[in-house]
Amino acid sequence: MALAIAGGAQAPGVSPTPADLLKDPAVHAALDAAKASERQTVEDQIRFCEIPAPSFKEEARGRELQRVFQQLGLQNVTVDRAGNVLGHHPGAAPRPHVVIAAHLDTVFPEGTNVKVKREGSVLHGPGIGDDCRGLAVLVAIVREMKNAKVQTPGSITFVANVGEEGLGDLRGVKELFNNTLKDQIDRFVSIDGTGVHVTNVAVGSHRYRVTFKGPGGHSFGAFGMANPMGAMGRAIARIQEVQVPRQPKTTFNVGRIGGGTSVNSIPSEGWMELDMRSSDPASLSAVDANIQKAIDAAVTEENARWGKPGTITVAKELVGDRPAGSTPESSPIVRSALAAATVLGFTANLGEGSTDSNIPMSLKVPAVTIGGGGRGRDAHALTESFDTTDAWMGTQHALLLTVALAQP
Ligand SMILES: [Zn+2]
Known about the structure:
Blueprint: H1 3-7, H2 18-22, H3 25-36, H4 38-49, H5 59-71, E1 75-79, E2 85-89, E3 97-103, E4 117-119, E5 122-124, H6 132-147, E6 155-161, H7 171-180, E7 187-191, E8 197-202, E9 204-213, E10 217-218, H8 228-239, E11 250-259, E12 265-266, E13 269-278, H9 281-305, E14 313-322, E15 325-326, H10 332-343, E16 349-353, H11 358-362, E17 367-370, E18 375-377, E19 385-387, H12 392-405
Parallel strand pairs: 3-6, 3-7, 7-17, 8-16
Antiparallel strand pairs: 1-2, 2-6, 4-5, 5-19, 8-15, 8-17, 9-13, 9-14, 10-12, 11-13, 18-19
Helix pairs in contact: 3-6, 3-12, 4-6, 6-12, 8-9, 10-12
The structure holds zinc ion.
């Protein structure tokens, strides 16, 4: 960044604000170009979306991002062990080191028709907003910073990451923070979803698959045997009585059950899947502990009812673990994210969500998730659509925030 041009009167150590950066000719040119080249951004968005990328099968889309990163001149373009694609924009110094990410994966299984249909300003296609918009904005930032020759004091790594959705369980960002760039990330931004918004509260979740087992037998001949589904029914009844705080909002849900072989067999197995959430780590642990207790008590009760201690056993498998956390409203990264919107003439609201930023927030690394602009509908449904009207606002917001965070 040409600091002398941007804000010569600044005291040493005071980073230029988004408002200061607007006066930098290179930044200004990049922002103008981000708006002017929105057509290219939308074309990228469609192209990325038409490459299938279910969680755990992101390689093909990842290869396309790798190709684009290389073509746009990012340095050290690599794919890490998890499949995250990284490209580096070196600054005058290695730190602060900013990571700007968007996720590659979608909730849609293999074989889903991902062809994008256009209807006026609206694009229809599974994954078009979540998160092909984020990927396209990520690429637009790289492209316009390069064309306008924007230089930064700190360094930026652009990441197209795997495993954000569902059972992906944030595995891409976990790998990034635990291995690939361990202890090297000072600020993190995920571009996820649509609109102009700033998410600074991470709703954490625990998900379990709970399996109850017993010997099973004939419903008439073996009557008197403890029943795994009996234990499960008791467990569900107890879970439904668990008390949770309204603030911070803490929730639980038994979402799926199954098991058994026939109406005239005592089942040998019953299973259920449950989900619990809170933005407060302590409340999440508390609801988790209460539900564990409810399940164990239900098993004891079922065995006692039939006088068969130890007959029914239970296994609780943690299939999803997204830590809760937050970045304070008063923190520089949140203030920059809001200021970047304001100086561009947009309004951004603060919100909460479950995104890739959950991981840095739980590690106390400053992080926010922002939208990529436009208007999204029906995310996670086959009818997903994206209205491109004024979507450039998201591109400008993300670009200005990226440059602002790469300041000392
Ligand atoms: Zn997403």
